[in-house]
Structures are given as structure tokens and as C-alpha cells.
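Margin note from the TA: students keep mixing up input and output lines. Inputs are the sequences; the output is the structure of the whole complex. Example:
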Amino acid sequence: MSTDSSPDRSSHAGDRTVDLELDGTIGPETFRLLACCCVLVLTAAYVSVLREVTRAVGGTEVLFGLVGAMVLAATVLAWTIRPRTATVLAVAAGAVGFAYYLERAGLGVDVVLSASDTIARDTAALATGLPLIRMVEAGTWTLAFVPTPVFLSWYLAVRGRYGLAVVPGGAALCFLVLTGDAGTTVTLLGTLAAIGAVGFGELERRGGSIAQADLLAALFALIIVLSLSVTFVPGGSGTPGHFAGNEDGTLEGTIDYASERSGIGGSVDLSPAVRFTVESEQASYWRTGVYDRFTGDEWVRTGEHGNYDGPLGEPPGDGERVEQLVTAETELGVMPAAPHPIAVEGDLAEYTDVSQQGQFHPETPVLEGDTYAVESVIADPDPDALRNAGTDYPEPVTDRYLQTPEGVSSEFEERTAEITDDADTPYETAVAIESHLRSSKGYSLDLERPDGNVAEEFLLEMDEGYCVYFATTMVQMLRAEDVPARYVTGYTSGQQVDDDEYVVRGTDAHAWVEVYFPDQGWVAFEPTPSDPRDDVHSDAVQQARSDGDESVDTDTSEDVPITDDEDESEASEENAETPDVGEDEDRDWNDSETDPGYESDDDGTDRERNETEPGETESPDSTTTDEPIEDDEADWRTTLLELVSISREAATVGVVVLIGLAASVHRAGMTTRLRRTIGRYWQRPTDDPDRDAARAYRRLESLLAREYRPREPSESARRYLESLEAESDAEIDPRVESVVDCYERARYGGGVGRATADEAIAVVDDIARKRLPIVGSWRN
Amino acid sequence: MTDANYPPQADGRASTPLEVSTVADLCAEIEANVAEVIVGHEDVIEHVVTAMFGRGHVLLDDVPGVGKTMLARSIATSIDSTFRRVQFTPDLLPTDVTGVNVFNQKTREFEFQPGPVFGNFVLADEINRAPAKTQSALLEAMEEAQVTVDGETRDLPEPFTVVATQNAVEPNQTYDLPFAELDRFMKKLRLGYPDPEAEVELLGRTVGEHPIETLEPVTDLETVVAARETVASVRVEEPLREYATRLVGYTREHARVGVSPRGTIALLRAAQARAATDGRDYVRPDDVRTEAPVVLPHRIKTTDRDRDGATVVENALERVPVE
């Protein structure tokens, strides 16, 4: 009998388990799936950050291949090797990767032993906000970095150790957050995924139901809201310096918004304020930044800055040593100097950094009135020498200055090849590109920033742009033709106010191109058409002057007409500016076009365009006077629209907050508790004294429950009271009994009168409030 | 709660209902009076008095000599009622209890000679010694408050309370009361031996003149009848009726035979009387709780030895929610 019944019973038990699942418990498989998905999302989060890097420097396919291989390997090995072996394997893979990185970076693996402090410092630099994109071998670093966390986290996830699986992935993401590469969204997503993995993993392990996921929901909401309201993540990208000239929306601000990155924006304004003055025997472009890596939408200077300690080596090629004395007229985040600076003197010298591209940068902003002396070698190459320079580029130059972002279209390359078809040497290529850009594109500061690769868009789609677009496009075209080139930013020579004195304004901010020639070094090229540019820029100054802006002029510059002065200095300036001046005969365009003397005629349309801006800002005034009522209405409408738009933005956050609140309230059973707590201290008499009496007693009961113990369901009110008195030594308020009496009469007897009920309420009120001392009342 | 099971009030005994507080005082007086004779056992005295006011009968289940008779007698005396005693023996006939028609030579008619059951307070001593036929004669009287002799039905006096005793010492010489008949007793009580001090006290009182001889009534039958009216009008509100139902339901679920609806009625009547003795005109759960352990257990039959009716009731009180 018993043997018969036992399988029967077990099958019955099996049935019941299934029933329970159907009753709302979610099977562990579902939670397992969710947890694994979360681990994958976490992995995807940091891989996507790394992909941003490889998109610029190349290697995306390898990166994805590596990730795929690691996931595959982890899946296969999950049940064949033990966790310790897996960890050792993963760490070993990481070590090999980094060794390869060190080799590629030209340091050699020995550096680990010989210069471990350097490595430590580099790591610290990364962890304190050095973006990956600034690393010289960012691609290799990325590939070295990725296998360990991917393998480990997926290996652990497959084994069901979700909590541990989150650790390597989380650490990887955390590191990328510290370098400033991981944006808020990615970080948020990764964090949510990490929590999800742990949460769902726990639910799987303990056989939880979906109802218990409310804690998870509350956590999610909390994190989302926190991440939207607090940003304490250090990062190089989002923290532009706040010195003058770096306001958003100005050309300068766009070009030099952060010391090691140069963005490409849309429409920009010109700030006519004087930035600095230079005393120099020779006019020149004043260079402030050199950039080598292009990500498609911004320029990045790779490599760490070093401290300036003594003059740099003189660049190759012909050149003339020129001393300049630069005086800052406003606070400056840069150190303008004629290319190529080799030495700096003055108090600032010890606060000067040198980039790996040979540009000086101040460690802290240069203050107004600060002066420093720079010695530069202004290149003056011979065109023939350039033409004959050949293509024997040193490897460090080709490694760094031939980079193009991934996914450059063949159309761009074909177009470039077409333009440079006739060019036989790199020099001719550069000149062809330069002349093509100068002649085919218009100049405008008012444009919409294109999506995607800026160089490609400008060459193929856009009709006009400003220096940033011209320079970027030229560099990318040159690189497409395997000519090492780089993007430089700075200022044009400015207004010459004396024989050897130049006043440089915000309007003079500029970007141009430097091309490398073997044995000649870096030679500047100017792809931006000068005439329209200078029209626009001098108009801005004139406009500011007529508006009475005092910052436009120094003591000396005011009397000197900009146009005349530049006209006079035409020849010399041009010589200094661009080394190509000497090869005029090689150029397709007329010499006069390249001259910065162009401002002679004020193009009516340009002027008009400039004037429309202030005109537009005035226009609301006129409307106000004409039709004040309508304007009010419009104002009101705008406000309403703003409100609507704000609330729409806020709606998402609000919904998240609400979900979170609801979940946590559900979690804590707070609705009931809150209602009870409120009800405990506050009772509004109703029309029915019996109900009031009953309610008063319930309140009393909850007070007693908090003070002593809850009433057993089988205990009557009186018995509860009696046993409380018996159980606890503390004396219970004698009035309590009257409340119980009242309750009993209301419930079991013929009811109570108004007065009796009120008295009961009063007693309970009194007792409740006596115990209210805020802190204690919330302690449960 | 006015139930058809009970006879209407006896003729010519119209009474005005008493205040509940008066009833409470009356109870207290009776109890105090009885306590002069019975030492200790205050709770039992109270139970018997409340049973009387609650229109119920009491079964005392105990060893001989602990004062069962004395208890009944003293209560009867206290309320100035007629006290009758029937000693049940194996050869006792039903007519020995109910009474018999006797032929009167003078009037040449049959005359009814009322039996001992025609009294206000009847002590049925060692009821389990008589055979079932005789027992049932008494039980009819208890249930219906009337007796039928030779086809003629006669009402019993009001009030009518039976206190039966059961001898638990000699089980082989007794006829066990059938379960259905046990059900008719409102309460089954045990006196038990008095504790030593009480016994010393008892001896001190009884060696000379027995106090029962000098016991004076503290009230009259009319008042008792009026008090019973008052008790019957004590409120039993819905939540309480539900509570009683839950309690009884529990015993039905947890025993082979649970408490019958008659038992539930008895429980609430006892609770009414209890409330009245406390001076309340409404029953509260505590009244039910107090009465349940004496009203319910003898109506419950369990299968296993470890759990008797008392345990089931105890569990019920522990587990059944009041509200």
C-alpha cells in the first residue's frame, strides 16, 4: 500500500509546483534569462564606449570580433573550467593585451619594470579624467582592455553567479566613467543592467515572484532620478574652462573649448574683444593648439602634456628665429605663439606645458596683463624644397598624422583623388586641395552643423563654412591621400598698430592646416578664403566699436583703422602668414585673392547680414510698441509653450519617480502604515457615534500594539487589555478602560451617545498625542 | 433569542421586568447566601445561579460527598423555592419522577399525585443509576417544562431548574447518559474537593448546627421569574452571534461530533445571564468566553483519547478570532 501511494503523492506534489507557477510565480528560467540579458547590456554599455574610440582610430571590427570571441569562449568554457582557472586565463589575456599595447606605444614591456611609476601615473591620469581618445595608442589600448571583463563577466553569468558577474563588467564601466568617456546615458544603462543582473539573479536563486521585483523597480527609479539630478563624474569632455573667449557659441569657444579638444560647432558668433597684443618683428598667425586625431565631429590632441623644461629643439627646414612678447588683455586659456615655438621666458615659463605636438599650453589660465616672451622659428621653406621633399615620412609622423575616422565614404576619397589628380608630389596635392577649397566654398559663420563626418559633409554636401570646416576638410583630404597633416588653431596676425605691435581680437580666432614634409617639418596651409572671412570679421569689430564696446580696442588700436592698416602691411603680413606665399606662381588663384587686403570693399550683402542680427533682436521692441496686446498674448503663449515643453520633459522623469515611489510604497506596505499612522493621531467625528467609538478603539488598539503587542485575533478587547496589564509591569492609562467600555457598548450593546463617543475620542487623542514626540512616533 | 423551547410563564405570576442592575444585585445576594453553606467553589455557585437565570439545567459530575446536594438545596432555599430531591436508583420508575394518577376512594375519581419533578428546584441525584426510561422522563420535563401522565400534559411550575448529579466513581453500576440527553443540560460542572483551608473552614461551620438549617431566603420566586425575563432580554448583537457561530463551527470541524445548535443557544443564554449578573444589558465576547468551557465540552465527542471536549473548546477559544 505504502509503496503504491508514495509515487502517487510525489506526482501530486509535482502538480502543485506547476500550479504555483501558474498562479503568478515566474519560473526561474525567466529570471535567469533576464539576469543574463542584464549582464549582456552591461557588457554592451562599456563596449559601446570603447567603440566610440575605435570608431575614430580604427579597429571596430577587431573589437567586436574580440568581444564575440570572448563571449563564445566564456559560454563554451563556462562548465569546463573552474572559476579560478577562468580568472587566471582572463587576467593573463589582459596582461598579454597590455604588453602588446606597451610594445605598440613604443615603450616596450620593460617599462613595467623600469618605469612602473610612469605606468601608475598614466593609470592615475586615465582614472582622473583623461579621455581614452587622447591616448596615442587608444585603439590598441581598447583592444587590450576589453577581453578580460567581457570573458569574466559572461563566464560568471553563464555559471549563474550574477553578483560576481557584475564585478568585472562594473569595474570596466566604472573605469570608463572615471576617464570621462562613458556618458551619462551609457553609465545609467550599465548601472541599471548591473543592478538588474544582481536582482534578477537573486530572484532566480531564491525562487522569487515578480511581486518581489518591486524593490528592483524602486532601485531603478532611484538611480535614474539620481543620475539625472547629480553629476559628479569627472570628465574632460564636459568641463570647458571658464576663461574669457570660451563662451559657448563663439568661434573661439568652439575652437578651443577644452584644452585638449577642439570641437566643430554650427553657427558661431564673433567676439570682437581684444585678447592679447603681440610685439613681434614679424607678423604671423599666432598658434594656440595643434590637434592630430579626428573623431568625425571633433579634434583631439593625443598624448600627455609634459612640463616645459628648457628650449625645444629647432624644427628642421629653413626658418627665422623671431622673439615675441605677448601680453594678455583678458584671461587666456592658451598661449598664443608664432609657429613653431621653441622657448618661452618669463614668470609663466614654469607654468608652461608642452604638448607632444610641440605647442605651449599654460597650466593655469594666463591672467589679464600677464606677459611672456616666446621664441619661435617661423618656417620659411623654399617651395622647391617642399616639392622635392619626397614621401619618406618618419614612422611617428605616419602613425599619428594619417588617422581618419572609420567609415569614410569612398565618395570622399574619390572626390579627393579627383581634385588632386594632377598633383605629383605631396606639396602639389596640398596646394591643389587648398586652392580647391578656397575657390569652391563660400564663407559663412551662420550654418547648421552637419551630422556625421564633418569633413565629408563639407566637401560633398555643403556650400559654405568657416575656417574650422575648411581646415578639417583639408586635413582629412590630405590624409586620404596619405599626406601627413594636422589641424591647428589659433589667431590670425590681427591688427597692426605699430611697426612691431599687433592687437589680436576674438574675431581673429582661426583654424588652419599644417602639412608635414620630410626634412622641412610642418608647413602651414590656409584653405579658408581670406576675403570674405576678413570682411565678416572686421565688420564684427566695426559693429562693436560703433556699439561702444570698450573691450574692442586697446589704447593704441583705436586710432588705427583696421582696413587701412592691414592694407599697408599687406605684403609683409602675407609673407609671414603663409609660407606658400613664395609659390604664387604655382597657384591657381590670383595673388590678390590670397592677400589679406581684401577688406577694401565692403560687400553689401555681408554687411547686411551682420546688421540683421542686431536688427532682429530689436524687432520685438517694435512689435511691442505697435501691438502691445498681441505681444502680451504672444508672451503669454510663449510662457505657456515653455511650460508645456518643460512639463513634457519632466513628464518622463515624473513617471519614473512615480513608478519608483509606487514600488517602494508597495514594498514597504507604506500605504497601510501611513493611513494607520495618520489615523492614529487624527480622528474626525462622524454622524454615527457608534462608528466613532469603534474607530476610537481601533486607534487605541494600534497605539497599544505599538507600545506593547498587537491584539491576538482570538482576544476580545477586554481580555487584550487585561492580559496587557498582566504581561507588562507598566501601568496602562486607566482611561483606556473607558474607551473599551464605550466600544463594547457601541458594538455589542445598544449603542452609545454622542457625548460618550466624543469622550472616547478625546481620551484616545490625548493618549496618542502624549506619545507623539516626533522621533518616537515613527519608530516602529 | 426567545425560543419556543421554553414554556410560557406560569399563570398568575405576572411580573414587571427588573433592571439589569437589580438582577446583578440579586445574583450577588444569592451567591453570598449560598456561600454561607458552601465553602469555596464560588465560581461553581455563580455558574449554577446564572444557569438558573438563563433557564438552563446543570449536571454536576463528581465524586460523592463534595456538597452537590447541599449546593442545590442552599440555592433553592435562597430563592424561597420548593426543593425536591429524587434519588435515582436502578429500580426507579418514570412515574416515581413525574407523578401518578391515584384512584380516590372518596371521590371515586382518579387524582393526580404530582411526582418530585413538580418543584422549582429539583435535585436529580445520581441520575446515571437509573435506566434510560426513567432518565428520559426527567429529560422530557427538563426540555418541555411539562410532564405527560396517562395522556394528560401538565405544566411544571415556574421557575423550574434541575440540578442533576452524576457519580463518576462506580462506572460499572451506572447507565451512561445518552449523548442526546447530555445535550439538554446547559452546563456540566465539577465541584471537586475543596482546598485545605476551605475544608478546614467547612468543618468549622458544620460540626455544630449545619448552616443549611438556618439559611434564610434572600428573594422570592416572583422576583426570580422577573429576573429571568430580564436576562432573556439581554442584547446579543450580530457580531456576537457570529462569534458564537464561529466557535461552535470550530468544534464541529475539529471533533467527531461538534456542538449542536441547541448548544449554541445554550451558550448565548448562559452568556446573557452572565452579562446580567455583571449588570450589563448586552453580551460581550468575554461573557461567551467565560461560559463556553462549561457549556460546550459535554456536547462534543472526540475520537482520540488525548483530546476531550474541553481541549477542543480551549483550542477554539484560542484560535477563533473574536472579530
